[in-house]
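Work Package 4 report. The design task specified in the project plan requires that, given a folded chain encoded as structure tokens, an amino acid be chosen for each position. We show below one input record used in the internal validation round.
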């Protein structure tokens, strides 16, 4: 009886003939990448990982207001500093120190006695860091599902830039401040606060119960830029 020749195991041949795939290098955590980008490109300090937060009171302060009111402000004020949003809130970036001036400015503008959903974040405050906007990608009034510069699509609850900062262009001179505004042509802080207060009050009145007849007539006057003095005391 003729012996059966040894037949190599084809599976072994296949494994040895294939090139082993390269093991990909581990990626840095997304939060670390985001923090490095802000610190390297803009010089803005940040903390945290999920989410990463930008510190206010160092390179900038921020006015915080409802998104609906902020949209109206952006329609009225063509040039502002960087603007970000998350969910139903918006942040208007202003020059560092602007947060301390908000109460005095509201009093001077005769808004001091009116309840407004308008606050300021200064030293010790934080805002959620939006993903950087890739060059050439247009921005609008917030598309949280749009792709970010770090890859992937942002979750719906993520912060987004509506008017993003421009790396290498010197952001601080473009931030609104009292006086004549920044050297970059941003509006005076007084004008920005006035527009924000008007729109915050308008949104609050429009959201109030329809049983308050003065609200709608007053809202129409805020759009025209006039306010009854009796309602600001």
């Amino acid at each position: 009886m003729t012996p059966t020749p040894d037949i190599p195991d084809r599976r072994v041949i296949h494994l040895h003939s294939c090139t082993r795939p390269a093991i990909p290098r581990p990626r840095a955590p997304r939060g670390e990448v985001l923090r490095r980008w802000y610190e390297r490109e803009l010089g803005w300090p940040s903390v945290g990982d999920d989410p990463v937060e930008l510190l206010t009171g160092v390179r900038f302060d921020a006015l915080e207001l409802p998104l609906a009111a902020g949209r109206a402000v952006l329609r009225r004020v063509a040039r502002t500093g960087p603007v970000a949003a998350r969910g139903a809130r918006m942040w208007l970036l202003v020059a560092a120190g602007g947060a301390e001036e908000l109460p005095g400015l509201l009093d001077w503008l005769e808004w001091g006695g009116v309840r407004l959903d308008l606050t300021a974040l200064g030293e010790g405050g934080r805002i959620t860091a939006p993903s950087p906007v890739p060059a050439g990608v247009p921005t609008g009034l917030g598309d949280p599902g749009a792709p970010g510069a770090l890859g992937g699509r942002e979750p719906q609850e993520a912060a987004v830039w509506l008017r993003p900062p421009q790396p290498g262009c010197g952001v601080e001179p473009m931030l609104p401040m009292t006086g004549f505004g920044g050297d970059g042509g941003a509006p005076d802080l007084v004008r920005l606060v006035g527009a924000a207060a008007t729109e915050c009050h308008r949104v609050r009145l429009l959201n109030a119960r329809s049983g308050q007849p003065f609200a709608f007539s007053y809202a129409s006057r805020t759009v025209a830029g006039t306010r009854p003095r009796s309602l600001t005391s």
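The longest helix spans residues 189-207. Validation will be extended to a larger panel in the next phase.
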